């Protein structure tokens, strides 16, 4: 049965993940041509419903939709009447009346894209909801890793940082495990939950985590704005204990490890400046691959008639 | 009015036996109960056909939302939901708008109840003005209108010094305290239990210790002041064990209640962000369910109370964090407890009557009805062979926010008699 919505990674099986990733390959090849567009979604409308500010994910989806020849509309949440009091149902009914085919939604509330998906015939793509899921980030991460490791089975990815508040950690670890990789978490005790993550080793000490011998070090953005109370004493202390410092970068270089980051990076927090020039940094690959997998996702989904 | 109920099986809090007898009710009083008697000529004869007669239930924890939030519930609709569920008395919580924090508001509420409710409706009063935790509410004003229970339910009384002084003051006036237990700083957005599910759903959870700390704090305050403390809607095993520990000491007057949903559901029922499993304290784990059930049986919990908390469909259709806490309970409590615990043999009618009819009335200082000669007529007939489907139409509450919506469970409340009136007959 064709899939209407992409809300999380948990509901995808390995086969469907492989389809989404394989399909992204020819889309990526387009990017080197002079004409980067295909008419796959010509005449279809894509609506961007971003309740949270985002530059990267927003532009990535917008570029992806336009390269598929879809018409893209931004539903300007900041200037619309949407406040806490208005029901999601009313907003969705408005969108339904516009006969939108695809809705790309980002919201601070976990689970909200699912609510919207149940209320509309349009295909809904979750572009990040609270600390719940960010499935297209997970797909682009998996795509990026598979470019380096065509058979990634058994490869080890160490995800570092604020696991507790991170939808990226949740979705990316889920997809990597479905593809047969191993995942561990590293971060301050206050930000790496003891209960919840299944079959994921938990480290709170950088050196211990390195002994696990990861192939990829995946740094999460330290999101100060999500911390309703303080989870660690200072940025300086975080950088010292969990950041990729110059010395740690040297060790990473010697071991030949890849570094990934969902962006935007905090220099001097989760990484030092030199990481950005590190030859095995995949951060820019992630951005480019993001467009390709998002094209693949939009192409894959089928709105209800 | 004379009512003669034939062939009823009589249940009581003191015996597991259900002896068959006829019950004669005249002018609101049970005149006789026995196997060998004939119906008086003028009697309304109801053949129970082996259905179970028992004293009606009493719910010591309900939110009737009036004044101020009548879209959710009114005293009238709430009390009709109670009757629908075999309940003939309730204690309202004071988190209305305005809050029930003075003799004036109590008088207003009781006047509405007298006019619109067919059962006695009691109300608790706030510990602090507006439930803000800053200044003491009008305690003697409320007492003079019959208030016995003081609580800032919905929240804990944040400042322990205020609660300490309130206990010293109001205990001398014969009042007692009921505590909603929660450290707000630990509870986060107060959406669900902290654990596997909160991680999976990506919402900050409220750890059980947020509740357990205040359970212990408030019992300690009662211990120090000589007050009677009643712990509301306990959800965690360790919270229950804290109460048991204090009860075993025997030097503080502490009672406690458990709600049907904390016996029946866990945070896993939330599934895909189903707000009908969102309440505060939150649903926890299977181990908590099992421990709480033992606590209900062994007497750590004196009573069952629903925490009946109606909300409109719009409010509950919001996203999980924004949706308000609470579910309705009056329409469904008795049948759901029968279906899940009595029909399955976990406990008998005697325990249910003790915990949901007799003990809550004792806590409130009320007469306890029984099916015996001379007792006030305050009874129900329950059919254990029938079923109830909780459709939207079945529910008398204004709201439908219950996990039991459209479920069919074993058991049915068929008759409710209070005094000289038949309140419900199916």
From TrEMBL, chain A:
<dbReference type="InterPro" id="IPR006131">
    <property type="entry name" value="Asp_carbamoyltransf_Asp/Orn-bd"/>
</dbReference>
<feature type="domain" description="Aspartate/ornithine carbamoyltransferase Asp/Orn-binding">
    <location>
        <begin position="154"/>
        <end position="301"/>
    </location>
</feature>
<dbReference type="GO" id="GO:0005829">
    <property type="term" value="C:cytosol"/>
</dbReference>
<comment type="subunit">
    <text>Heterododecamer (2C3:3R2) of six catalytic PyrB chains organized as two trimers (C3), and six regulatory PyrI chains organized as three dimers (R2).</text>
</comment>
<comment type="pathway">
    <text>Pyrimidine metabolism; UMP biosynthesis via de novo pathway; (S)-dihydroorotate from bicarbonate: step 2/3.</text>
</comment>
<feature type="binding site">
    <location>
        <position position="137"/>
    </location>
    <ligand>
        <name>carbamoyl phosphate</name>
    </ligand>
</feature>
<dbReference type="GO" id="GO:0006520">
    <property type="term" value="P:amino acid metabolic process"/>
</dbReference>
<feature type="binding site">
    <location>
        <position position="221"/>
    </location>
    <ligand>
        <name>L-aspartate</name>
    </ligand>
</feature>
<feature type="binding site">
    <location>
        <position position="263"/>
    </location>
    <ligand>
        <name>carbamoyl phosphate</name>
    </ligand>
</feature>
<keyword id="KW-0808">Transferase</keyword>
<dbReference type="InterPro" id="IPR006132">
    <property type="entry name" value="Asp/Orn_carbamoyltranf_P-bd"/>
</dbReference>
<dbReference type="InterPro" id="IPR006130">
    <property type="entry name" value="Asp/Orn_carbamoylTrfase"/>
</dbReference>
<feature type="domain" description="Aspartate/ornithine carbamoyltransferase carbamoyl-P binding">
    <location>
        <begin position="4"/>
        <end position="147"/>
    </location>
</feature>
<dbReference type="GO" id="GO:0044205">
    <property type="term" value="P:'de novo' UMP biosynthetic process"/>
</dbReference>
<dbReference type="InterPro" id="IPR036901">
    <property type="entry name" value="Asp/Orn_carbamoylTrfase_sf"/>
</dbReference>
<comment type="function">
    <text>Catalyzes the condensation of carbamoyl phosphate and aspartate to form carbamoyl aspartate and inorganic phosphate, the committed step in the de novo pyrimidine nucleotide biosynthesis pathway.</text>
</comment>
<feature type="binding site">
    <location>
        <position position="84"/>
    </location>
    <ligand>
        <name>L-aspartate</name>
    </ligand>
</feature>
<protein>
    <recommendedName>
        <fullName>Aspartate carbamoyltransferase</fullName>
        <ecNumber>2.1.3.2</ecNumber>
    </recommendedName>
</protein>
<comment type="similarity">
    <text>Belongs to the aspartate/ornithine carbamoyltransferase superfamily. ATCase family.</text>
</comment>
<dbReference type="Pfam" id="PF00185">
    <property type="entry name" value="OTCace"/>
</dbReference>
<feature type="binding site">
    <location>
        <position position="56"/>
    </location>
    <ligand>
        <name>carbamoyl phosphate</name>
    </ligand>
</feature>
<dbReference type="GO" id="GO:0006207">
    <property type="term" value="P:'de novo' pyrimidine nucleobase biosynthetic process"/>
</dbReference>
UniProtKB/TrEMBL annotation, chain B:
<keyword id="KW-0862">Zinc</keyword>
<feature type="binding site">
    <location>
        <begin position="63"/>
        <end position="65"/>
    </location>
    <ligand>
        <name>substrate</name>
    </ligand>
</feature>
<comment type="function">
    <text>Catalyzes the reversible cyclization of carbamoyl aspartate to dihydroorotate.</text>
</comment>
<keyword id="KW-0479">Metal-binding</keyword>
<feature type="binding site">
    <location>
        <position position="153"/>
    </location>
    <ligand>
        <name>Zn(2+) 2</name>
    </ligand>
</feature>
<keyword id="KW-0378">Hydrolase</keyword>
<comment type="similarity">
    <text>Belongs to the metallo-dependent hydrolases superfamily. DHOase family. Class I DHOase subfamily.</text>
</comment>
<feature type="binding site">
    <location>
        <position position="311"/>
    </location>
    <ligand>
        <name>substrate</name>
    </ligand>
</feature>
<dbReference type="InterPro" id="IPR011059">
    <property type="entry name" value="Metal-dep_hydrolase_composite"/>
</dbReference>
<dbReference type="InterPro" id="IPR050138">
    <property type="entry name" value="DHOase/Allantoinase_Hydrolase"/>
</dbReference>
<feature type="binding site">
    <location>
        <position position="233"/>
    </location>
    <ligand>
        <name>Zn(2+) 2</name>
    </ligand>
</feature>
<protein>
    <recommendedName>
        <fullName>Dihydroorotase</fullName>
        <ecNumber>3.5.2.3</ecNumber>
    </recommendedName>
</protein>
<dbReference type="Pfam" id="PF12890">
    <property type="entry name" value="DHOase"/>
</dbReference>
<feature type="active site">
    <location>
        <position position="307"/>
    </location>
</feature>
<dbReference type="GO" id="GO:0008270">
    <property type="term" value="F:zinc ion binding"/>
</dbReference>
<feature type="binding site">
    <location>
        <position position="61"/>
    </location>
    <ligand>
        <name>Zn(2+) 1</name>
    </ligand>
</feature>
<dbReference type="GO" id="GO:0004038">
    <property type="term" value="F:allantoinase activity"/>
</dbReference>
<dbReference type="GO" id="GO:0006145">
    <property type="term" value="P:purine nucleobase catabolic process"/>
</dbReference>
<feature type="domain" description="Dihydroorotase catalytic">
    <location>
        <begin position="50"/>
        <end position="237"/>
    </location>
</feature>
<feature type="binding site">
    <location>
        <position position="280"/>
    </location>
    <ligand>
        <name>substrate</name>
    </ligand>
</feature>
<feature type="binding site">
    <location>
        <position position="95"/>
    </location>
    <ligand>
        <name>substrate</name>
    </ligand>
</feature>
<dbReference type="InterPro" id="IPR032466">
    <property type="entry name" value="Metal_Hydrolase"/>
</dbReference>
